[in-house]
Structures are given as C-alpha cells and as structure tokens.
Amino acid sequence: MPNVIQPAPVPTDARFAIIVAEWNKNITGKLLDGAVDTLVEQGVADERIDVAWVPGAWEIPLVAMRLAESGQYAAVLCLGAVIRGETTHDQHINRGVSMAMLDIALEFDLPVLFGVLTCNTLEQAIHRAGGNVGNKGSECAEAALQMVGLLQAME
C-alpha cells in the first residue's frame, strides 16, 4: 500500500491574501464572498485575511507577485471574471494572467490559486459565482487550504 501524504492542519497564524478584479464586480464580489466565507468557516480568523482590489484580471499578477514577495502569506487567491466578447481579447487576458500566476507560484514556492472565471457568457459567470454550478471563489479557498496543509505536511 503506498504512503499517501495527507494535508496537515492549517496553522492558526496563517495569513491569506485575496486579490479581486473590480471588472465584472457583480460577479467577482460574489466570488470574494464565497472565498471569505469558506476560509472563515474553516477556522481562518477574519483579521488574517487581506483583500486587495485591482481594476481587472490583467492587473492581478503584479499584485500577486508583490504579496508573494512579502513572505507574509500562506496562499494568494486570485479572483476575477473574464467574459468572452466579440474579439479575442479575452483569450489574451486569460493566457497572460494564468501563465503569470503559475510563474509566481513556482518562483515563490507558494500556492497562488486561479479563481479567475473564463466564461463564454455572463450567464455562465453568474452560475459559477454562487448559481447552479456553485461558487468558484469558495472552491478556490478550499483548494488554498488543502494546498497549504499539503505543503505543510511535506516539510
């Protein structure tokens, strides 16, 4: 039987950063609510959660890098909503943001969670921000907690 590495409990002094894009705020605000609610329900004190609003998804990686550099956070959650329009603009945003976030996670050995919705329609985004497909902000927070615990167990 293989040895399965199980996540350790998240340290009570762990801090979490959440970056939220203001673009499509009617969607991203719900993602933020889901993320904060999940972290608090899992025992993270409200005062250990820092939220930074940025204009849009494109600005998320710069702030994520600054927060990662600070060494203060157990994880950085990145929330946004990029909805396809009439051009390929969304594809460029999504690709750039996702690749930058991956680079930051690897450079700083830190969970940087991709909670950016990449939807074809506003309706799809609504369904993923607390609608019939769940809340991807909450799922992002759950993944952050699991990754923090797993990395803790691997030390």
TrEMBL record:
Source organism, top-level taxon: Bacteria
Enzyme Commission code: 2.5.1.78
Binding positions ((2S)-2-hydroxy-3-oxobutyl phosphate): 86-87, 128
Entry keyword set: Riboflavin biosynthesis, Transferase
Cellular component, GO annotation: cytosol; riboflavin synthase complex
GO molecular function: 6,7-dimethyl-8-ribityllumazine synthase activity
Reactions it catalyzes: (2S)-2-hydroxy-3-oxobutyl phosphate + 5-amino-6-(D-ribitylamino)uracil = 6,7-dimethyl-8-(1-D-ribityl)lumazine + phosphate + 2 H2O + H(+)
GO biological process terms on file: riboflavin biosynthetic process
Pathway: Cofactor biosynthesis; riboflavin biosynthesis; riboflavin from 2-hydroxy-3-oxobutyl phosphate and 5-amino-6-(D-ribitylamino)uracil: step 1/2
CDD domains assigned: Lumazine_synthase-I (cd09209)
Pfam families: DMRL_synthase
SUPFAM superfamilies in UniProt: Lumazine synthase (SSF52121)
Protein family membership: Belongs to the DMRL synthase family.
Function (record text): Catalyzes the formation of 6,7-dimethyl-8-ribityllumazine by condensation of 5-amino-6-(D-ribitylamino)uracil with 3,4-dihydroxy-2-butanone 4-phosphate. This is the penultimate step in the biosynthesis of riboflavin.
Entry protein name: 6,7-dimethyl-8-ribityllumazine synthase
Gene that specifies this protein: ribH
